[in-house]
Amino acid sequence: MTDAPEVSFFDPATNKCPYDAYQELRDEAPVWRDPATGMYVITRYEDVKALLLDTETFSNERKTVRRSGKEAHLRSLYETEGWVPAPTLAGRDDPNHKQMRALFDHAFRPSRIKQLDPVVDRIAHELIDAFIDRGRCDVVAEFAVPLPLLMIAQQMGVEDNDDIWKIKAWTDAWVQRLGMMQTDEEAEWSVRMEIEAQHYFQPMFERLREQPEDTLFSDLVNTVIPEWGRPLTDEELHAEMMADTFVGGSETSTNALSAGVMLLVQNPDVWERLCTEPDTAIPAFAEEVVRLEGPVQGLFRITTTEIELHGVTIPAGSMINVRYAAANRDERQFDDADSVDLDRKAPRSHMAYGAGIHYCLGAPLARRELILGFRALVDRIDEMRFADGNDFAIAPNFCLRALKELHIEFTPRG
After folding, report:
1. CA–CA dist 249, 153 (Å, integer)
2. In whole angstroms, how large is the CA radius of gyration of the chain?
3. N or C: which terminus of the chain has fewer CB atoms within 10 Å of its end residue's CB?
4. 310, 337, 307, 288: which is closest to 19 by C-alpha?
5. Model's pTM, two decimal places?
């Protein structure tokens, strides 16, 4: 195994632009044991894909958990002040995963997603209405955050649009904890924020049990999982509200919309293609954005047995960091991997939404939000440019990639 001690995903410079580090690891240490975490980092496309498809060897579920004093303290906060979140859908293996996944597949069924197109389109244009006359905006705060969050909030029974900013604060706190870059005090703050969110959603669970509705939220609360003989418990619902619904249902789209606008300003020829060939270029661009600027940079698996990969022995029970974003720029798989290519063959072959049984259940909705979001910008804006003062800062996070803000100036159409 080749050491690469100069690589640190906790270094602010690497966090801002990890792609040189990914290149080094793909070339020199495709199986690299991170000295900071002890995890084995996998970066080549073929390895990432094979790993995601092999759920027997690479598990999502932690069979045993040894809690540190800090983790025990955080759990006690859930126990005394809220609800202890159950394992999420992403943290389960089959058959338990398959049984729970059927519930979400029903809730996110294609016919329901198709019905949401007019809602996404309306929200996108209403958001643009609010800043179009100014000729400038912060893409993150004024478009990329509220578009998917308003969408999922409507489906989850949030009636007051002002509440999305409370929900955004809760999901940000959850995401920061996932990102592994917090102090102990910050981790406790994140847990308390999640407990605050639990008390916001709990009355909604109880209301929908008494008065079911024809909504995605009501489906999640009331649908019985046949093999379990029951619907989801409060603890399971609270876990899903944060991880797979509001974070999973908004964070990926927010980060991809923001990164997409940045790429379009940097690549005016690509913007021109979107404007002149929207029906074909915009869907292609939506795939290139998540490939190039992966909103989810990497997640985790655990080995169930000892394996050898590229000459490296990985013991059973080892934590694996599956680096999707590194795989998506692997020149062994993608020609001109660091560039936007609207004519790329097999445009959906990237790993941005995962692969196999844990393929992102929200991918169809995310694709529609990206396509309709970029289409609304094409419809309303003639040209875009960066405003002064952008530093293109990326939020510190081991797992996700998110622009903090993105200020642009533009010329409206017509």
Report:
1. 9
2. 21
3. C
4. 337
5. 0.92
